[in-house]
Amino acid sequence: MSTLAPDSSRRRPTDQADVRRHNAALVLATVVADAPLSRARIAAATGLTRATVGSIVDDLLVAGLVLEQGTSSATGLGRPGTDLVVAPDGAAGVGVELNVDGLTVVVVDLEGTVRHRVARPGDQRDRGAAAVLRSTARLVDSALAAASDLGLPVHGVGIAVPGLVDLGEQVVRLAPNLGWTDVPVVQRLASYAEAAWPAVTVDNEANLAALGELWSGDHAPSDSFVLVNGDVGVGAGVVLDGRLHRGSRGFGGELGHLTVAPDGPPCRCGARGCLEQVAGLDWILAEAGLPPASGSTDDALVPLLATLRDDDARAIAAVGSAARSLGVGVAALVNLFDVDTVVLGGVFADLFPWIDVPLREVVAARVLSAPWAPVRVRPAALGRDAAAIGAALSPLRALLADPLAATLAG
Amino acid sequence: MSTLAPDSSRRRPTDQADVRRHNAALVLATVVADAPLSRARIAAATGLTRATVGSIVDDLLVAGLVLEQGTSSATGLGRPGTDLVVAPDGAAGVGVELNVDGLTVVVVDLEGTVRHRVARPGDQRDRGAAAVLRSTARLVDSALAAASDLGLPVHGVGIAVPGLVDLGEQVVRLAPNLGWTDVPVVQRLASYAEAAWPAVTVDNEANLAALGELWSGDHAPSDSFVLVNGDVGVGAGVVLDGRLHRGSRGFGGELGHLTVAPDGPPCRCGARGCLEQVAGLDWILAEAGLPPASGSTDDALVPLLATLRDDDARAIAAVGSAARSLGVGVAALVNLFDVDTVVLGGVFADLFPWIDVPLREVVAARVLSAPWAPVRVRPAALGRDAAAIGAALSPLRALLADPLAATLAG
DNA sequence: TATATTCGTTCAGCGCCTGAACAATAGCCC
DNA sequence: GGGCTATTGTTCAGGCGCTGAACGAATATA
Lengths: 410, 410
Hints:
The structure is a homodimer. By secondary structure, chain A is of the alpha/beta class. The model of chain A is unreliable at 1-10 (pLDDT under 50). The first copy, chain A, has a five-stranded mixed beta sheet with strand order 5-4-3-6-10. A five-stranded mixed beta sheet of chain A has the order 13-12-11-14-15, sandwiched between helices. In chain A, strands 7-8-9 form a three-stranded antiparallel beta sheet, covered by helices on one side. Helices cover 42% and strands 21% of the residues of chain A. In chain A, helix 1 (16-34) crosses helix 2. The first copy, chain A, has 14 helices and 15 strands. The interface between A and B is large, with 91 and 94 residues. Chain A binds a DNA duplex through helix 1 and helix 3.
């Protein structure tokens, strides 16, 4: 019956329009990656003909996505080329992080720069979805107005939510921390919008943070990496070949409940020896002899960092031990996924100086392919706004994948 | 610098030839999935025009990949269509499983049927790479001759190896159980070949077994599952959304070296407490009080199965313990990837009746999403030959992705 | 100033898909 | 049986996108 199952991801026909789409995306991506660049150098880099590149660049200029920047100052023989750069004001995305302790909106341009940011702190837990989404709509309205003032055409709005999201229906199925069940976020927001909005999409905040890291960090385009987010719990966003892997049912990335010590302390989840029991913030604080985190994460993190900077042996040993446990988990990830980079986010980013060495030791010892293909470990590039920025970059990624769609439609 | 990283997996230009390639692959895949099918129904299924489908089918007929099968017997109004089927003798692949306990070669046709099979049992551990590869070359020579006798054009040879494979260089970097390091398998085989061979590729056996399972098993095309292959070592092939995930550098799926007991027995890989040290066949045999596998896996497996069928408490406990260790690894896989199915292959398939219950218990306890999204555990559809069949299907998959390349080249 | 080199554009040519038109073939109804 | 309808498969002009060569433009070197 099924036998040789076809490559399912693209079960639709292709025609010349797709060729143009693909090549336009290729040209724009090349400019984004290595600007400034002349048409001839783009042709050399992409393998396209100068004629084709010229034609595509014309379209991109009309779309306002790239700009000519006078003749190239690059020294060399022959006629100098015309430098092309990404238009800083060519396109923007709006991203909202909708979290338990407040709302944050950002406007991000094609260069990944945050051009506008507004945060509205405040507990969202007991306000109800309708009230929260009304506030969100007002925040988006203001961000759209700000983008308009900045001369930025907004290509889409992304919403980051801490919960399980049905991407097809664009519905938040379950967000325990917000107390939401089956909230059709996009539909509701549309009804609250004051003016016409561009396309709105919802996604899980951890996923979007990983995407933000992928796009804003210093990554090679086809990277595979894991964003390990440390807090009281430990989660992971897995990006394989530049694509986020969400899991077949939206339950992926639970690194915190990897078994590190089968006979270790019991975990909330019911199992024993879970990673977050011996590498989470609570464990580190206890082991370092500091009081547990009662309020926000920062309240607990600041004294820990102060103690570490004082070269306190007990605190350093605690973080080192956590780092070695984390290393077991990271090694498992690398052995299974063969990612080449591990990005440490959340408190792990702050603790990176003390985590780095012991983590590397364990990873080097436990990753089979380590001698041939070293694993890079580095702290996250984006801070706490990673999810909002990832949400804003989401529509920009769609634009980059099909740069001429907007022009053709408009 | 990098900012919005482009979709990298395809950093090369596209032209009309790629359009043709893609659409030809689409048409052939449709025939493979739902044969027999008329041109008109292919057009309806793919979204292509009848004109385009007609043209592509002409090419596929010339290439000998599909056959016309008289007028359709499908009852209906109007002129009946001409049924098209995949040509059973249109193409074949040769697959070799190169394992510790012997060599197996198969010839598989486009329908996934095994048309030829030869197994050469015998311990390969201490023979040295040169001797093993010479035997392999002779086996491939005989398989190519057999395919020729059957009238099957062989489109490629796949080699399945239990170890880390560098897919780019086609070199086995490390195969601990064979005692291999940096063996350029394809290059060596080429020098041992008697006659001209088609393209040869090496890949990890677990990956290939997963591909075999994906293509031959009763899977939906977009399934996500993990095939856990048990032998002396333990490997995993991860299939996400119907695509095998090899890892960014081809080193993925090393489930056997997941840390299960950080202070456990030392492993060949240099680390401690690796899963295959406490769930591999060697460990099970030792724990059950049976002699270690000296010759083939079967020589060791048969008495083990006999003992188990006799309800021997010690053997059942040994397998149960291995199953619980395996459960820790499987739970890690599921927590990270959120796959909905775990397929047990190799000796784990044979031991399934005794593994099933203890494995399920551990998985249920350690998988976070288990209460909401149960994990299915089942034995592999393909038997011990899964890796060999997957290896043989590998070149056929390449053919399916670009059906007209061979014709155009020839 | 003359030559070599490189850049960007233009244009004919080709391949591929589309959509309409057409002949072929079958069932259905009178 | 004869018309009518429905469906299949092919043919052909048309459009689109890429290629490759030719050409003018601009700059460095001799």
